[in-house]
Write a structure and sequence with these properties.
Chain A: Its cofactor is thiamine diphosphate. The complex is a heterodimer of chains A (341) and B (329). With 341 residues, chain A is α/β, with parallel strands linked by helices. Chain A has 12 helices and 14 strands. Helix content of chain B is 41%, strand content 11%. Chain B has a 7-stranded mixed β-sheet, with helices on both faces. Classes of the chains: A alpha/beta (341), B alpha/beta (329).
Chain lengths: 341, 329
């Protein structure tokens, strides 16, 4: 790729997704999309905007509210050699189709001894912070990361969203591609700088198994994912003014998890805080803590810090919700406690 | 048997007989290492075992109309369908024995048989294979083939959400899709009349504005006729169908099932009208074949089944570390 020829535009998260899908669908006829309101509407969170007009209803297929039916159909179509992309509108709806996802999509490659390949991308919107309450605000990163056979990614910034979606579409394994509603850059949600970023116009891949250091520092490692990375970066600015230089790792890939980047960072900073917008127990914070405790124990100068939703359903009222989802203020407090040990 | 090709009838006989012979052998082999105390995890064939004795007409009467390009998804009771679809019998048996030479190198087992060469798969979750067949039918339609996809299910699966979501999708998209409901009267221990709001699942076709067919008396010849029409319609882009066949489960839900829920006289009365014996008599009566010729067919089947069991038993187990392979490709 000639650097001088590279065209870069600023795109929102949702436009980065739509562009990735368009570019891959242009070069591969076997790709098609199924989901609820992904046709003319363009996806409730804009992930397929404009694609219906470009590719028509045969390749951008609105489905009935039948997640078991169409996610199961994606499995059948993938086994026949097509490359379906399916959208589960909110990750919270996984319950109605989880059998297809974890008993079939995740396991058929293994149960067939590698003879059946399922190149499926399962798009799903995650995250809270806008008073959508307990059934529309979860991330459930760990619920999917727990299941063998699924790659699970959760990119934060438009550059990674496009590159990881292209990599997901090209991957021959099922990939759960989680996009955060607040990072889609939608006009009807909070406007965040993070949801608007530079994206090269041509197609490119970002690996599905690598975390990224989005701010380097020496005093403490903060691992975040999606909105928690955004909050960690905000916290790092505040901490810098207090003389604490934080390193922020954007996890990006839930499964497989990039141990190396995390361990190398902790080896440098000797302090670790993991921040998650999922539930506390048995989640990402526990997983990363276990990895560092067992493989990087000697790096640590202080106990590992964990911030996550404190094992309650996500409440509706703004004041309540704000209390349970970690934010920059809570991160600053937690880091200050951690480095003072 | 008018208008049915002799060749097709003989094929159906051979497939049904092979399946029966395979299952009868499995019924015995399965008990190895499980006597006198039955432990489901013991012996060379561990785990659950669901045998299809009695249900062969459903598989044979439908699959006689299919080619290797047509897709079949089957149930947790899959051997008759797998054999009819042409799944490699040696590899299938080896898979059931957990051997490296099995279809999935020992990772699937009896309920999870995958043979993409003949487009066959099955699974252990009731109703879950239906949307997979819908997806295969969708792929067939997208690629402008005239291939069809058939989901075999039990009558219990017709009450799952997957059944209804799938039929709505298949009808909405007018897919070359057929669901065959093998009504063996029992969803494990629950009788159909205690689980299903309609006496016949084929009448549910009305709800999706598609064709519904019923085959009574576990009759392979009727199954043949009805399936022929449904498959032709699917190939001609005339949409999906439901076929329900009244069939019979001679054995328990699984081997080791005490069947306390079932009248002890039921099975002997079913075996009296066994469809394989009946077809055999009909073939001879119609002068399609002599007794001697059928005896020769039978002995070849026994040989084929013996070979499969020998192959399975003499194959090696996978290395333990192979458990960590094949999660991703």
């Amino acid at each position: 790729m000639e650097k001088t020829l590279e065209k870069i535009k600023k795109l929102t998260g949702s436009k980065a997704m739509a562009q990735a899908l368009k570019q891959e669908m242009d070069i591969d006829d076997s790709i098609f999309i199924m989901g609820e309101d992904i046709g003319k509407y363009g996806g409730i969170f804009g992930s397929t905007s404009g694609l219906y007009d470009l590719f028509g209803k045969e390749r951008v297929m609105d489905t009935p509210i039948s997640e078991t039916g169409f996610i199961g159909a994606a499995i059948g179509a993938a086994a026949e050699g097509l490359r379906p992309v399916v959208e589960l509108m909110f990750v919270d709806f996984h319950g109605v189709a989880m059998d297809q996802i974890y008993n079939h999509m995740a396991k058929i490659h293994y149960m067939s001894g590698g003879n059946v390949k399922l190149p499926i991308v399962l798009l799903t919107a995650v995250g809270g912070g806008y008073s959508d309450a307990a059934q529309h605000s979860q991330t459930l990163y760990a619920s999917f990361g727990h299941l063998p056979g699924l790659k699970v990614v959760a990119p934060t910034f438009p550059y990674d969203i496009k590159g990881m979606l292209i990599a997901a579409i090209r991957d021959n394994n099922p990939v759960v591609f989680m996009f955060h509603k607040t990072l889609q850059g939608l006009g009807w949600m909070d406007q965040l700088d993070a949801s608007f970023g530079e994206v090269p116009e041509q197609a490119y891949e970002v690996p599905l198994n690598k975390s990224k250091i989005v701010k380097s520092g020496e005093d403490v490692t903060i691992v975040g994912v999606q909105m928690m990375t955004v909050e960690a970066l905000k916290a790092a600015d505040i901490l810098a003014k207090k003389g604490i230089n934080a390193e922020v790792v954007d996890l990006r890939s839930i499964k497989p998890i990039d141990k190396e980047t995390i361990l190398n960072s902790v080896a440098k900073t000797h302090h670790l805080l993991v921040v998650d917008e999922d539930y506390l127990s048995y989640g990402i914070t526990a997983e990363i803590s276990a990895i560092v405790a067992s493989e990087g124990f000697n790096y640590l100068n202080a106990p590992i810090g964990r911030l996550a939703i404190p094992d309650v359903p996500i409440p509706y009222s703004r004041v309540l919700e704000k209390n349970v989802i970690p934010n920059s203020e809570k991160i600053v407090n937690a880091v200050e406690k951690l480095v003072s040990v | 048997m008018d208008n049915i090709r002799k060749k097709d009838l003989l094929w159906m006989y051979r497939v049904m007989k092979t399946s029966r012979c395979f299952e009868e052998r499995m019924e015995k082999e399965y008990l190895e290492g499980k006597q006198p105390i039955f432990n489901i995890g013991s012996g060379p064939v561990p785990g659950e075992m669901h045998l299809s004795n009695g249900q062969e007409p459903a598989a044979a009467g439908m699959i006689v109309h299919l080619t290797k390009n047509d897709t079949v998804t089957a149930t947790h009771r899959p051997h008759h369908e797998a054999i009819a679809k042409g799944v490699d019998l040696n590899k299938m048996t080896a898979e059931i024995y957990g051997k490296k030479t099995g279809l999935s190198k020992g990772k699937g087992g009896h309920m999870h048989l995958f043979d993409p060469k003949v487009k066959f798969s099955c699974g252990g979750i009731v109703g879950a294979g239906i949307p997979h067949a819908v997806g295969a039918a969708l792929a067939n339609k997208k690629r402008n083939t005239n291939w069809v996809a058939v989901a075999f299910i039990g009558e219990g699966a017709a009450n799952t959400g997957a059944f209804h979501e799938s039929l709505n999708l298949a009808a909405l998209w007018k897919l070359p899709f057929i669901v065959v409901v093998e009504d063996n009267s029992w969803a494990i221990s629950v009788a159909k009349e205690n689980s299903t709001s309609v006496p016949f699942n084929c009448t549910r076709a009305k709800a999706y504005d598609i064709n519904g067919y019923y085959v009574k008396n576990n009759d392979p010849v009727e199954m043949y006729k009805v399936s022929k029409e449904a498959v032709e319609r699917a190939r001609n882009d005339e949409g999906p169908s439901i076929i329900e066949i009244k069939t019979d489960r001679y054995l328990g839900h699984f081997q080791g099932d005490p069947e306390l829920y079932r009248n002890k006289k039921e099975v002997p009365s079913l075996i009296k009208k066994d469809p394989i014996s009946k077809l055999r008599k009909r073939l001879i009566k119609a002068n399609y074949v002599t007794i001697e010729e059928l005896d020769t067919v039978d002995s070849l089947i026994i040989k084929e089944v013996n070979t499969a069991y020998e192959f399975a038993k003499h194959s090696k187990y996978p290395e333990p570390a192979e458990a960590l392979e094949d999660v991703f490709c």
